[in-house]
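Exercise: predict the structure of this protein bound to nicotinamide-adenine-dinucleotide.
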Amino acid sequence: MVKFKIKDESLAEEGFDALYIAERKMPVTGKIIRERFEKEKPLKNILIAGCLHITKETGVLARTLKAAGAEVALCGSNPLSTQDDVAAALVKEGINVFAWHGNTNEEFYENIRSCLDLKPNILIDDGADLIVTAHKEYPDLIQSIYGAQEETTTGVKRFIAMEERGLLKVPLIPVNNAKCKNQFDNELGTGQGIISAIYGMHVLFAGKNVVVAGYGHCSSGMALRARGLGSNVTITEVDPIKALKAKFAGYNVAPISEAIKNADMIFTATGCKNVIKKSDFENLKDGVILANLGHFDVEIPTNELKEYAVSIKTVRKDVEELTFPSGKKIYLLAQGRLANLVLAEGHPSEIMDMSFALQSLISEYIIKNKGQLKPGIIPVPEEIDNEVGFLKLKSMNIEIDKLTDEQYNYIHGFEEGT
Ligand SMILES: NC(=O)c1ccc[n+]([C@@H]2O[C@H](COP(=O)([O-])OP(=O)(O)OC[C@H]3O[C@@H](n4cnc5c(N)ncnc54)[C@H](O)[C@@H]3O)[C@@H](O)[C@H]2O)c1
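Solution:
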């Protein structure tokens, strides 16, 4: 019997409409892989728990895992990113869902526990909270997990830290590090996502000073899109090579304390904390918009900003106007949480098609290699990464060249030179 705790079951019809839109844009996960899984049932009798943003795209993944024979349980990976209508539709389809928009931190962990109580065999995480909780509170379960997957950069970093300290007890595949994931999801998804998040503010990008903290996968994507809309973009970095790349790509590069003085919008996606410091608050420009797209709500110091403000007014859904003692007003999106998932619907479905194709095929890989995968971080198999690339091209009717034997031998040999 399906188990669930969601906001409102009566939202299911809207959820089915949302899923319908996503399905049509996710042919690799929702059609090519699903049709094979339906026939072969590679995940029969397997229980998969996913701590993921409960969006229409995650719904497509859940359907594909179910088509493969798995029982699926989902909890949200962010208190504000669950699409309640999608959650309701998935429950109607027999997916166990424990998630709703606006849960408290305590409820967030209760929902994780509800998934773990079902005794999953595979864990799919986005930010490491599911797997870390399993390590802390479910020692017997953790020994019996066949394999786990991590979807985002911050989660992978947490697992690297666990492994270095000898604490990682499951075979962990960092899906985030796949070429088909971080070069598309992080760069294109987040790049477009920041524009969608800001859209509701009806602000013109052209001519505005935009500061982007970081020049990694997500942040370089955001910088590119802001520049494309005519903004004057300044990058802040802590890595000299990334800073040079930004400079030679034509951006201004400056320390954050300098850069923010003229900023009309500030976007963060660094995976770091307190990117804007308390000492910088009074240097923020009147009217500045602050949006974080990094995984946790620590990049923009939300609590400190709110304590510093003399008044806070919600000016539209998920947008707060904070008035400072000096009278300056700043606009904080999504309480400092992932603005693209809170104010918009997360990455476009076409992008998530690739991320979730990887999750689907890696779930199959874990079962095929059950018992042979040792605890620790296991790189994404290159053949799976390339397969997703080929399937995505195929779904778009794009063909590419194939190396001849002569070419293959040339680029893998050393004999031929001048
Ligand atoms: N919003 C989304 O949908 C979404 C999607 C994917 C990833 N993420 C999250 O976004 C964050 C970034 O991911 P990524 O893949 O771009 O990581 P990345 O490692 O590619 O890039 C992060 C960059 O930030 C820089 N940096 C670190 N601390 C900094 C600081 N204090 N000031 C300025 N720059 C700093 C690093 O040097 C690096 O270049 C992570 O938290 C990740 O989990 C969010």
